[in-house]
Design brief:
It contains eleven helices and four strands. It is an alpha+beta fold.
Length: 219
C-alpha cells in the first residue's frame, strides 16, 4: 500500500506523533519513524524543513514535509483512502474536525495538570474532568466517536489518553470513576493492534512527566 517513501520525525512521548503513527498503522502504510532527540540536539532533517517551530511530528512523503498532526492525518486519509478515517459526509467531516479542535484547544490545555501544583493543578484537574465528561457525552452510546468504525476522532483522543495515567497520578483522580463510558471506550481502543503497537507504557510516560517536572523546578 506504500506510495513512495514515508518518513516520520518522531518523539515517543508525543501524543501528536502517536496520532500519525496510529493513522499509518490503520492504513497499513509502511513508514520509517526516526526518533528525534529533542533535548540533546535536533537533527538537520527536523530543522531544515521546519525552521520556525522545530517541533515533531514532521511527516515526509516523497521528501515533501508536512507539519501539524491534524493536517498530516487528513493528508494520509486522502492519499491512502482505505479504510477511511474521516466520515463520508461533509457534515460528518466538519463535526470530526470540530471535535479535534476541542481536544487540542481545550482538553490538551487542561491536561497541564502534570505541569502544575497546588491550587493551579486543582483547577486544571476540575476543568479537565469537566471536558472529559463533554467528550463522553459526544461518544454517547456509540461504539466509536464516528459511529461503528474506529476513525479520526478516536485516533485524536486515544493518543492523548496515553498521558491520562500521569494526569491521574498528579491530579489524584481516576478517569474510570469520573467517566466510566469513556474509560470503557479507551480500554476497547487499546486492544486494537494499531493502537497497542504505538501507545507507550503508561508508567514510562509517568516517569517522563516526573523528569520534566523536575527539570522545570515544579517538584
Amino acid at each position: 500500500m506504500s506510495k513512495g517513501e514515508v518518513v516520520l520525525l518522531d518523539f515517543w512521548a508525543s501524543p501528536f506523533c502517536m496520532r500519525v503513527k496510529i493513522a499509518l498503522e490503520e492504513k497499513g502504510v509502511e513508514y520509517e519513524a526516526r526518533e528525534e532527540h529533542l533535548f540533546a540536539g535536533k537533527s538537520e532533517l527536523l530543522l531544515k524543513p521546519n525552521p520556525v517551530y522545530q517541533k515533531v511530528p514532521v511527516f515526509l512523503h516523497h521528501g515533501k514535509p508536512l507539519y501539524d498532526s491534524i493536517t498530516i492525518i487528513s493528508y494520509i486519509d486522502e492519499v491512502w483512502p482505505s479504510p477511511p478515517l474521516l466520515p463520508a459526509s461533509a457534515y460528518g467531516r466538519a463535526q470530526a474536525r470540530l471535535w479535534a479542535d476541542f481536544i487540542d484547544e481545550k482538553v490538551l490545555v487542561a491536561g497541564n495538570i502534570w505541569r502544575s501544583k497546588g491550587e493551579v493543578a486543582e483547577r486544571a484537574k476540575n476543568e479537565f474532568i469537566d471536558l472529559l465528561k463533554q467528550l463522553e457525552g459526544g461518544l454517547g452510546e456509540k461504539e466509536y466517536f464516528g459511529g461503528d468504525s474506529f476513525g479520526f476522532v478516536d485516533i485524536i483522543v486515544i493518543s492523548l489518553a496515553s498521558w491520562f495515567y500521569a494526569f491521574e497520578k498528579f491530579g489524584w483522580f481516576k478517569v474510570e470513576e469520573e467517566c466510566p463510558k469513556l474509560s470503557a471506550w479507551m480500554n476497547k481502543c487499546m486492544q486494537r493492534e494499531s493502537v497497542a503497537k504505538v501507545i507507550p507504557d503508561a508508567e514510562k510516560v509517568y516517569e517522563y512527566a516526573i523528569m520534566m517536572r523536575k527539570l522545570r523546578g515544579i517538584e
